[in-house]
C-alpha cells in the first residue's frame, strides 16, 4: 500500500490489504473473461502487484463517478501487471484491456490506473578473467559501493510496504551499468584495497596452440546432429524410394502431388505394414517444404491427433487445437485407422478435412486398409477421404524386395554378400521392408563379430526367429476366416451346401488359396469346406485359374471384385492378421 497510509497501520497490515486488492482484482477479471482464459493468459508467467508511484509502461486511466471504494485509493495508486514475454504482452494489450479496466474500476471505485509491463530480469555479471590493468577498476568499484548504494536508494521508486521481493527485483536491472559507470568515472582513492588473485579466475585458451581444438569444438556445436528418428525421416525421400509393380500407382500419385499439391486431395495410401507408406508420406512433406516453400506442414500419426484432441477437450483448448490443425499449408496423417470407433475424434477430423478442402490445401492419409474397409469410420468421413485419390499398395514383390535388399546391404554392410545368400534371404522373407532391414542389421553385426561374411547356416542359427517371423503361418482355418471377412459371409454358408453364386465362388476361391498357400491335400481341403470329395477341390482350383486368365469378377453388388484383386486382398489380410 502507499506510504501516506502507512502511518496508521503496520507493514504487515499493508501487505494483507494489498493481497486482498489483488485477489479482488483477479476475481473481477476472471468473471469478465472466463476461468479458462484467465488460467491460460494470467496464471503462468504473469505477476500482479499494487504500487503507489508512476512508472514507465502502458498506463490506462479511467474514472467512475463516486467516492473511492477503499480508504487508501488515491490518484497515484495503481495496479501493475508484469508479463514475462513480449508476445503475451502484445496479445494482452490487444485483447484484454477493456476487461482489465472494468475489473480495476470494480476494485478501486472512482479513480484507478492499470499498467501492463514487460518483466525485466536481473542483470548477471559474467565472471570474466581480469588482468592487471583491471584490478584498479575493480578496487575503485568496491570502494564506492556505499556511495553507489546511497545514490540508488535516492533514485529508486517508492513501493508499498509488504511488496514481495520478486516484484522489487525489476528495479535492479540497471545496477550493473550503474556500478561500472560509477567505478570508471570516480577519482577518489579507495579506502581499502582488495587484492584480486588471478589464480582463481578461469583462463582463456591459448589461441596459438589451441586454435585447432577450438575450431573443432565450435564445429561440433554448430553442426547440431539430428536425433535418430529425425535422421531416419531425413533419409525417406523420393530419391531413396524403390518403386515397382507393387507400388507403381501410389508412387505416380505421389509424384503428381509433389508437382501440384492441390491436384488430387485428399490422397489416400493404404496397404499392409512395411511397404513404404510412411516413406512416401515423409517424401511428400520433404518436397512440400523444400520445393513449394511450405512452412507449416503438419505431419502426425492418427494416435497423436487423437491424444491432442483429448487433451484440448479436457483443458477447454479447442480453439487452439483447431487453429493448429486447420491453419496449416498441408496436413499429413499416418495410420488413420487409429481413429476408428472414436465418434468425437472422427467428427473433429471430418470438420478439419472439410475446412482444408475448402481452402484447397493438400491432405495425405495413410492406413492399412481402404477407407471403406476400415471399421468404425463414419460414412461422411469415408466419402471425404475417398473424394480425392485412393491408391492401394501391395506387399513388396520379389523384384522390388531384391532391390531394397541390395540397397540396404550397400549402406550397412562392410563385406559383400554372395549372390546365393542374397537370393536365399530374398526368397525366405515376406514383403515387409522392416524385416529386410532387421536381417541386414543382423548380418552386418555377424560380419563384425566373425570378421567375415557369415554362412547361411550361421544366419539361420542367430536369426532363425526373424526368418520364421517373416513367413506368416497360413492354415485352412485362417484362410476360411479371411475369405468370410472379405466377402462378408458367415462360416456356416461357406461350409454349407448352398450353390448360390455369392457363396460358391468365394468357397472355390478359398479352396484355391488353400492349395496354393498350404501343404494340404485335395481331400483334406475338400473335407474342411463342408465334407466334400477331393474332385470338388480339383475343380475349384481349375475354375479359379480360368477366372484369373479371363479377369472374371467374384461376388455381387458392392462386394464384387476381380479374382486377382480378391486374391491380393485376402493375402494382405493374411499377412496383417
Automatic annotation (TrEMBL):
<feature type="compositionally biased region" description="Polar residues">
    <location>
        <begin position="208"/>
        <end position="220"/>
    </location>
</feature>
<dbReference type="InterPro" id="IPR013159">
    <property type="entry name" value="DnaA_C"/>
</dbReference>
<keyword id="KW-0235">DNA replication</keyword>
<dbReference type="Pfam" id="PF08299">
    <property type="entry name" value="Bac_DnaA_C"/>
</dbReference>
<dbReference type="GO" id="GO:0006270">
    <property type="term" value="P:DNA replication initiation"/>
</dbReference>
<keyword id="KW-0446">Lipid-binding</keyword>
<feature type="domain" description="AAA+ ATPase">
    <location>
        <begin position="263"/>
        <end position="397"/>
    </location>
</feature>
<feature type="compositionally biased region" description="Low complexity">
    <location>
        <begin position="172"/>
        <end position="185"/>
    </location>
</feature>
<comment type="similarity">
    <text>Belongs to the DnaA family.</text>
</comment>
<feature type="domain" description="Chromosomal replication initiator DnaA C-terminal">
    <location>
        <begin position="475"/>
        <end position="544"/>
    </location>
</feature>
<dbReference type="GO" id="GO:0008289">
    <property type="term" value="F:lipid binding"/>
</dbReference>
<dbReference type="Pfam" id="PF00308">
    <property type="entry name" value="Bac_DnaA"/>
</dbReference>
<keyword id="KW-0547">Nucleotide-binding</keyword>
<protein>
    <recommendedName>
        <fullName>Chromosomal replication initiator protein DnaA</fullName>
    </recommendedName>
</protein>
<dbReference type="InterPro" id="IPR020591">
    <property type="entry name" value="Chromosome_initiator_DnaA-like"/>
</dbReference>
<dbReference type="InterPro" id="IPR010921">
    <property type="entry name" value="Trp_repressor/repl_initiator"/>
</dbReference>
<dbReference type="GO" id="GO:0003688">
    <property type="term" value="F:DNA replication origin binding"/>
</dbReference>
<dbReference type="InterPro" id="IPR013317">
    <property type="entry name" value="DnaA_dom"/>
</dbReference>
<keyword id="KW-0963">Cytoplasm</keyword>
<keyword id="KW-0238">DNA-binding</keyword>
<comment type="function">
    <text>Plays an essential role in the initiation and regulation of chromosomal replication. ATP-DnaA binds to the origin of replication (oriC) to initiate formation of the DNA replication initiation complex once per cell cycle. Binds the DnaA box (a 9 base pair repeat at the origin) and separates the double-stranded (ds)DNA. Forms a right-handed helical filament on oriC DNA; dsDNA binds to the exterior of the filament while single-stranded (ss)DNA is stabiized in the filament's interior.</text>
</comment>
<dbReference type="InterPro" id="IPR003593">
    <property type="entry name" value="AAA+_ATPase"/>
</dbReference>
<dbReference type="GO" id="GO:0006275">
    <property type="term" value="P:regulation of DNA replication"/>
</dbReference>
<dbReference type="GO" id="GO:0005886">
    <property type="term" value="C:plasma membrane"/>
</dbReference>
<dbReference type="InterPro" id="IPR027417">
    <property type="entry name" value="P-loop_NTPase"/>
</dbReference>
<feature type="region of interest" description="Disordered">
    <location>
        <begin position="152"/>
        <end position="226"/>
    </location>
</feature>
<dbReference type="GO" id="GO:0005524">
    <property type="term" value="F:ATP binding"/>
</dbReference>
<keyword id="KW-0067">ATP-binding</keyword>
Amino acid at each position: 500500500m502507499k506510504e501516506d497510509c502507512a502511518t496508521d497501520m503496520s507493514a504487515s497490515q499493508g501487505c494483507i490489504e494489498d493481497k486482498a486488492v489483488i485477489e479482488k482484482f483477479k476475481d473481477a477479471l476472471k468473471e469478465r473473461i472466463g476461468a479458462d482464459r484467465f488460467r491460460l493468459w494470467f496464471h503462468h508467467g504473469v505477476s500482479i502487484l499494487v504500487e503507489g508511484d508512476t512508472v514507465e509502461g502502458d498506463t490506462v486511466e479511467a474514472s467512475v463517478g463516486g467516492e473511492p471504494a477503499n480508504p487508501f485509493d488515491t490518484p497515484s495508486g495503481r495496479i501493475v501487471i508484469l508479463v514475462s514475454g513480449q508476445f503475451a504482452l502484445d496479445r494482452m494489450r490487444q485483447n484484454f484491456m477493456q476487461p482489465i479496466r472494468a475489473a480495476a474500476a470494480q476494485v478501486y471505485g472512482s479513480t484507478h490506473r492499470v499498467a501492463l509491463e514487460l518483466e525485466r530480469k536481473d542483470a548477471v555479471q559474467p565472471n570474466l578473467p581480469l588482468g592487471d590493468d583491471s584490478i584498479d577498476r575493480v578496487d575503485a568499484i568496491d570502494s564506492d559501493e556505499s556511495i553507489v548504494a546511497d545514490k540508488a536508494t535516492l533514485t529508486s521508486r517508492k513501493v508499498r510496504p509488504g511488496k514481495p521481493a520478486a516484484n522489487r527485483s525489476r528495479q535492479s536491472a540497471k545496477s550493473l551499468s550503474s556500478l561500472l559507470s560509477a567505478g570508471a568515472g570516480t577519482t577518489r582513492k579507495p579506502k581499502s584495497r582488495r587484492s584480486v588473485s588471478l589464480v582463481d579466475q578461469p583462463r582463456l585458451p591459448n589461441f596459438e596452440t589451441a586454435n585447432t581444438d577450438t575450431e573443432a569444438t565450435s564445429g561440433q556445436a554448430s553442426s547440431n546432429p539430428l536425433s535418430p528418428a529425425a535422421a531416419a525421416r531425413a533419409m525417406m525421400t523420393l530419391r531413396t524410394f524403390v518403386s515397382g509393380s507393387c507400388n507403381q500407382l501410389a508412387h505416380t500419385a505421389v509424384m503428381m502431388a509433389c508437382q501440384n499439391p492441390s491436384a488430387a486431395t485428399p490422397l489416400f495410401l493404404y496397404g499392409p505394414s512395411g511397404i513404404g507408406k510412411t516413406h512416401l508420406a515423409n517424401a511428400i512433406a520433404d518436397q512440400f517444404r523444400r520445393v513449394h516453400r511450405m512452412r507449416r506442414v503438419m505431419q502426425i500419426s492418427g494416435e497423436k491427433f487423437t491424444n491432442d484432441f483429448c487433451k484440448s477437450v479436457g483443458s477447454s483448448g479447442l480453439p487452439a487445437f483447431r487453429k493448429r490443425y486447420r491453419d496449416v499449408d498441408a496436413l499429413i496423417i499416418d495410420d488413420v485407422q487409429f481413429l476408428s470407433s472414436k465418434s468425437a475424434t472422427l467428427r473433429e477430423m471430418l470438420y478439419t478435412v472439410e475446412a482444408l478442402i475448402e481452402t484447397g490445401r493438400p491432405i495425405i492419409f495413410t492406413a492399412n486398409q481402404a477407407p471403406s474397409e476400415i471399421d468404425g469410420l463414419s460414412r461422411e468421413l469415408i466419402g471425404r477421404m475417398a473424394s480425392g485419390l485412393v491408391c492401394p499398395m501391395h506387399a513388396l514383390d520379389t523384384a522390388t524386395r531384391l532391390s531394397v535388399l541390395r540397397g540396404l546391404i550397400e549402406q550397412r554392410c562392410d563385406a559383400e554378400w554372395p549372390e546365393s545368400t542374397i537370393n536365399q534371404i530374398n526368397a525366405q522373407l515376406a514383403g515387409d521392408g522392416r524385416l529386410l532391414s532387421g536381417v541386414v542389421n543382423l548380418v552386418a553385426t555377424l560380419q563384425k563379430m566373425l570378421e567375415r561374411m557369415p554362412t547361411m547356416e550361421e544366419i539361420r542359427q542367430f536369426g532363425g526367429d526373424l526368418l520364421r517371423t517373416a513367413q506368416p503361418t497360413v492354415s485352412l482355418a485362417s484362410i476360411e476366416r479371411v475369405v468370410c471377412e472379405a466377402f462378408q459371409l458367415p462360416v456356416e454358408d461357406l461350409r454349407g451346401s448352398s450353390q448360390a453364386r455369392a457363396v460358391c465362388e468365394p468357397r472355390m476361391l478359398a479352396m484355391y488359396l488353400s492349395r496354393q498357400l498350404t501343404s494340404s491335400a485335395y481331400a483334406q481341403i475338400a473335407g474342411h469346406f463342408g465334407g466334400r470329395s477331393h474332385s470338388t477341390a480339383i475343380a475349384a482350383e481349375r475354375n479359379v485359374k480360368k477366372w484369373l486368365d479371363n479377369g472374371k469378377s467374384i461376388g455381387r453388388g458392392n462386394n464384387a471384385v476381380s479374382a486377382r484383386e480378391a486374391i491380393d486382398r485376402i493375402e494382405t489380410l493374411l499377412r496383417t492378421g
